């Protein structure tokens, strides 16, 4: 405990936020000996007095701690000490042999997090100490997930509810849901600070938001992220410039913002944000780049009807596997190959939530096929020759039959063509009775060079 | 009807149920003579739960205002007893009506209960007291019922074919009552997997709550907790005219599930605001009888308000007792089907959510049927996230099942704007999926018409539209077009009716936008 306080004092007097946060790390594998000695140096009967002594008698003048602030930190370290006890217990590292559960760890860490938040709202904690909040939020999420997993594995029954309107899905993530609320408090603690920017907690906001996003996505409640964005844009006026936040936070934020738009089928916005993330992302962060591309590629397919080049995909074998066959089928206008590729990758696509988007690539595949029919019709005998624009419906039927391989009748082909025209992928009109398709003389297939 | 125009107290569903029907399934004669029927219900004084089959209960709409009397003052009020009630009391004490095996005290208690109930429920003036069974008879019937219950008799005596009240309107669709339900009596005996997995029997849990004290539901309680008091206060505010202001103290929330002791088959649904009382909760064997009764009633009367309410209380009793077995599944399935048939998406969705969890825990039922509905439902609500999850839930084998394959094909047809395929699928829907497809067929027709109007030149024959968009007849198609302001675009040429696409286009575009914007997510009835 003494050593820990020494670290606190050093970090505090130097105003080093990250060092200060390290004194509150609950990460056991890094320094099990150290954490255990902290735990064992405390005694539940005297810990409060001990802490008070260390804070008030141990050279307070050098630390410039006000009475409130000192009291706040005492609370924080008290809660930290208790949480350590649970962590050591759950890992079976307690010498007294006491056992615990991850749910208890989560709860004790929650108390710790709350004491920290109170420190900011009531005890004048300064903004350079924000990394402590990061630690609190980060491990809150980790402990919550372990707690949920543990309950799931034990098959514990929670339902204290007597209503049947509860969603069993959310019951399964009870701790993580609770964690979402804690993170939201951290977010609001940062957001609501009215101090001048130089000493504002607003600098912690994107770290908090990114944690929240991660949590909401994990909970399958991505839509809740909307509220965060709303609150953020409402307070944008007195926010530091986005560019001045750490790049890592910028990339993560833009990625989630992009995916959020993607899930809402707002591909234009999604493309914008994902592109920013793509450009900012560190070149060696392969995993992150891959994640960004997973959503950026379908965006491009739908928005600009473009496919990734082989060179772009080269460093990402997983993406090659994911998008390669589809891209090939689309290029060739091969409907059957497209359907097969989509089916082959279905599980993976569904998991990444891009299946429903990629499916719409079939329109582009079909467009390419119809374009081939148009090309095959050739030119008129005029001088100079122009492309034939009146094409019998039967030709399209034949082409789709060959490409699709399934029985398809004229009515369905007409329907598909009507859709192409409706979506502006093809220009022209269908004359139903004579069974003729008349294509536009200029730009029959917009954006495809014809 | 003046009854319906009076706003019901908040928190209580407005529903007139079967009470407004003058022909109830149970006449007092049956109640008096047919004690062998385990499900005949006796009036009891119960807060919330009106005895469902209060004999000869015939509320007269004009008498309704009496129910609005301030509740709190009722206890002290001087009551002007109607003549019929006096006579009823008199009759009860006539020597020739006394029964040897019913004590005077028992009888008096019952009598008081019956009249108090009638008074509190405001039906004193509307009850036919001349036909009301005498208290000694009621006591006897109750004993009989308890005996039957103890013996676990669940056989229904009222066998016999029941003819649905109305012929199906659309032969395309199956009715919920058409579906052959598996025999429910078998799984009853088997312990639920829930109990097995916990390694603790229901008995263990109820008798050993975590505080170590034996749980006695009828034990007098120490001071109520603050939240409990608040809950009761809140409850009182919402209670309106349905009960007296007095409530017996409710037990503290127990840690384990409770075991019900009520043997009343029917029970009105009320959202619980505190821990349930065992005496108001029906045990599983009674619930089996309830389900049988409800199925019969549904086939016979098709009174959805009543059925929905009863199913909700049935589900509630299952939930509070943590009964999760094949019987639970069948309750949710049947309620889901009935809700579907009536287009009550709110209830349907609740059932669907529970069913998903029940199937996931390995219980039997008709997962294929309901997984297919689930997909169709999310198509209707245009919930992409949920749709994605629904697909993720499917196994490869399930994707090959006819109903699920159909639903997936519907989805992909719509995603690709393939209205031709969509309407072919609409004409051939497995199970009751057509009720769900009906919900979004209008907007898809509009979408298809928009595409047609843009892609075709000049005119389209009405016949073609009828066939492509699966209308029943040309007349129905024409009506659909007229309903969306397309009358000017319809004209007759050479003996056939055609649609001038240029004229109709804007109308359909407008209607399409409107239709796709307002997807009613929780359309609860």
From TrEMBL, chain A:
Residues 251-444 form the PCI domain. It comes from the Eukaryota. One of its GO terms (molecular function) is RNA binding. Pfam families: PCI (PF01399). Coiled coil: none annotated. PROSITE patterns: PCI. Belongs to the CSN12 family. This is Protein CSN12 homolog. It comes from Pseudomassariella vexata.
From TrEMBL, chain B:
GO terms for cellular component: nucleus. Residues 66-77 have a biased composition (Low complexity). It holds the Pfam family SAC3_GANP. Residues 194-210 have a biased composition (Polar residues). InterPro entries: PCI_dom (IPR000717), SAC3/GANP/THP3 (IPR045107), SAC3/GANP/THP3_conserved (IPR005062). Residues 344-515 form the PCI domain. Residues 229-239 have a biased composition (Basic and acidic residues). Residues 50-79, 165-260 are annotated as: Disordered. PROSITE patterns: PCI. PANTHER family: 80 KDA MCM3-ASSOCIATED PROTEIN (PTHR12436), LEUKOCYTE RECEPTOR CLUSTER MEMBER 8 (PTHR12436:SF4). This is GANP/Nin1/mts3/eIF-3 p25 family protein. It comes from Pseudomassariella vexata.
